[in-house]
Amino acid sequence: MSTTQPGQDGASENVFVIEPQETIWTLARQLISGQHTITQLNESARLLRNAKPDDPAVLHHLSQLQRTTDGWFRAALPNLLAEMQVAVEAHDTFGPGFTRVEDPIDAAAWNNKVLVWRERLGGTVGSNGEAPDAC
Q1: What are the φ/ψ torsions at residue 18 (nearest 5 degrees)?
Q2: What is the pLDDT of residues 101-112, one digit of tens each?
Q3: Which residues contact 125 (CB under 8 A, 6 or more apart)?
Q4: What is the band of 8 on the pLDDT scale with cuts at 50, 70, 90?
Q5: Which of 43, 115, 30 is nearest to 72 (CA)?
Q6: HEC profile of the chain
Q7: Domain spanning 16-122, CATH architecture
């Protein structure tokens, strides 16, 4: 995993790397962009619903839009917030700047924090521990 998000560095799950300030900014941008997208989708859905409330193609499209919106609130949003929470915790624990935790036990604990926070924030978690694809 890159240093812009909390978690392992891709080489090993026994390592945790993060640059908390960069991570927060990256995730904040994703959060803002995602919410703008959801707002636009909801406005489009409202306009479609009002224009052609009985059109089967429109109803199908509205159903797809609703699944996307649900995915945002059940998966993407809790995942972003969980990653932000871990970045804040890492900043509070280690201070600003790049952090690399190489102790396997400590790294595993830090790598698990995103999963724990995602569950606490109401997010869905797949069987592999990852957030399902959303948006």
Answers
A1: -160, 145
A2: 999 999 999 999
A3: 115, 118, 119, 131
A4: very low
A5: 30
A6: CCCCCCCCCCCCCCCEEECHHHHHHHHHHHHHHHHHHHHHHHHHHHHHHHHCCCCHHHHHHHHHHHHHHHHHHHHHHHHHHHHHHHHHHHHHHHCCCCEEECCHHHHHHHHHHHHHHHHHCCCCCCCCCCCCCCC
A7: Up-down Bundle (1.20)
